[in-house]
From TrEMBL:
TPR repeats lie at residues 518-551, 738-771, 780-813. Coiled coil: none annotated. InterPro entries: P-loop_NTPase, TPR-like_helical_dom_sf, TPR_rpt. SMART domains: TPR. PANTHER family: NEPHROCYSTIN-3, TETRATRICOPEPTIDE REPEAT PROTEIN (AFU_ORTHOLOGUE AFUA_6G03870). This is TPR repeat-containing protein. Keywords: Repeat, TPR repeat.
Amino acid sequence: MSIGPRPYNIKYRIFVDRETCTQKFEEFIRISDNKKYNALFYYGIAGIGKSKLQRKLQNVLNEEYPEILWVSADLRNPSYRNVSTFLVALRDEIEKKCNAKFYLFNMAHAIFWKKSHPDIPIPKKTYPLIKEDSFFNSVINVLNETKPGPLGLIPVKLIFDIINKAPDSIRRFFEEQAISIDELASMEAYEIEKRLPGIFADDFTSNLGMNSRACIFIDTYEALWEGLRGKGSFHEKDKWIRECLIPNMKGVSWVMCGREKLLWAEECDEDWKNYITEFRVEDLPEKYSEEFLKDCGIEDKDIRSAIVKASEGVPYYLNLSVDTYEQACRSKKPEVKDFADTKKKVFDTFVKYLDKYEIRALNILSVPNSWDLNLFQRLMEKFNKNYSPDEFTELIKYSFIKEDTDDNFSLHQLMRKSLQEHQDPTYRKEIHLFLNNYYSNKIEGLDFKSITQEHEIALIEAYYHAKEALNFEDLGGWVVKYTEPFNKAGYWKTIYPMIEDFVEMLKREFGPDNIYYGIFMKNLAYLNEDLGRYNEAISYYQQVLEIYEKNMGKRILENNALVVDDHAIAMVTSDLANSYMAIDEYEKALTLQKNALKLVQNKVGEDPLYIALIQQNMAMSYQYLGQYDEALELGQEALNAREALLGEDDLEVAITAGNVAVIHQQLGNYEEAFALAQRAFNINEKKLGPKHPVVAQNLSTLGALCTQMDNLENGVKYCQRAVEIAEERLEENHIIIAETLVNLGSSYQYIRRYDDALEAYQRALHITEYNLGSENSKLATLLNNIADTYRMMDNYEKALEFYQRALNIARSCLGKEQPMVALIMNNMGKLYIDTHEWEKAHSVCQQAFDIRKKTLGTDHVDFAISSLDLGIIYGCLGRRDHALTLSEHSLYIFEQKLGSDHRYTKQAKLVVDTLKEI
């Protein structure tokens, strides 16, 4: 930097403005005692001074309301954007200001953390209590000695032993809590996380009393949406603050700052109009801008007037003007003309008083989105060798440089834009190329089973710079190469924006009929399928078919024998059919699959591998249509062919094995189904890693089978593990999460944890309706399960409501004579049996019996269930002989299919023995 004296104490610039904002805040504080929830939200454009306004409001509390405890958190720090780490940050701030002890919260958080990261030791620095409470240090040590995943347990007894040896005050504290350690230990990580706000609030109240006054500041609220705009529901992103934090901390005042109005009352819950005030932060009035500039040492009234006029009350430009003034003072007396007319003039004047190396440093730093010291040094060594890395600490003192996270910095966007407007495009492209290589090297040769969040960030940054640095052909190659491991690992939500962006670039570059556009659009369709966005996938597949048909006979790549032909059309047609299956269009899917199979079979030198693929997909259509014999025949044929062509341990073979397992499951062949599902799981876990979304699906299937086979303990464990993986790796509303939750709910239902079952089902219901709408066979299955749970809880009115809704949907989506319809009707019959409404019970159970006899045959487990229920009804109606015949047939099937120890077999034997005694 320029040679000159350096101040040893930097004066922090605080705006002396915001009289109206401050007045609104004081009104807010005064009325907070009269509201159970109280929130004030300031919103305004970037650079308007919201962060400094918060500091001023905090000073107001310090000076005028010293009895109010206040703490703050800035969401620019990514780690604060989820509930658990946010609460840890608040706890740390509160403990610094008062002698508070968050005993239960710390315990709950430690158990939550260990359940979330079973293979990683708990970081002791997260828990300040360790410094003064040896008992908590012992608890952490005990937790770190176990791996409490789905197959392990939290050592509750050891924790109680430690607490019992703790001081009396600590022991009494834990004895008096509403939630116990063993309850926490029995919960899943996501269940604990949902309760953390309430536990935090209880500890807060225990420490500070019911009538304590506190104020929590949240800054940079818009950071919650960073990188997530356009993905899912807008208001899902801050739901944990709106619905989990604020309602659990009654009496606490919340002051938040962000760029956009929240609209909680308008779009979420109109009741918020009673509890939240939203206030726009306007441009600074001239008199306050004047005071600010004068406070910063600008004595010349004419210069102050010029700055106020040029800056138009935007604090960013006022700050930049002060920087410019201070720079100018080093070499000359500043003049009015340096600040007059436009904001651009202020920027130009600021740059004018920097030396060429300082200017070059800022220009370089306007290219990356952010940088740390290491990247800064690398950039300077490459592009600005005469600028010493030691100047870093001086550079970051400028007001337009902000610290985003610990040791990570960025330029204010307005400053960045101003710098970019003056850059040589060629020079800028060189920097982009360097940064693309810098981030690409971080993910070069990446093992897809070892991907971390750091790798995700590197990929996102590398693509940003690749777009600016590479020609179009090289960019396409880069996208294919570097997204492939993330795609294979199931990081679909990470790569989707890149593929989508590149597809749009292809369309602009080559037009909507170009074959390359079609090829990449097919990849986009695949990703939409993976993400559970089936309607979007269908739209893309249909466009791909149109493009392929227009390019029939053309080579896909130069010097490549691969051309767009019937084979290529068949493959896209088969993919389109898969998406139709996902939205219950089974007949349409089957028609498309038959067309695809015909195209492939008619091709000279037909490819048996692709024939097997289409047969596998057709098998699933037949299975969904209830045509199980056709499904099993085709599925087994496809499995045999793929094993012969690919080997027994291929990932594609695992897919087919898993599909055939589902068909056997529907047929009641649980042993065969379990063996195939276990095989699919073993292959996928080995080749994809233990936390891949596909592995979650395999585990969920195994859990469902265990539940059906009466292995209830393993059923719960498998299903819990499946949900954990799915929630960790997928977007919060992904349909796979719903599928794993359905099986988890079923496993809870059979061990009589009805409340847990309903919670799982309700979450699955929300996700399913979000993705597939209110008319879908998956929804019918889920509603039937909810009804079953209410029936088992003796809430017959609620159960009947859900059964009827499920039945209407199943008939509408699948037809009147389909196994799913029979399942729901038979369960309704069970309800009428429970309520002794024998005529109604007989009517619906007989219909279910007839449908199952026609579609499943008389040796199917489901038919045996209907037969037994009819036997019970006839027995209660005094028709013993008919009842005994039906019940004995059921017992025979259960013994053959399920074994003598299964709950169904035992129930049937009891019914038969009872009838024989009559």
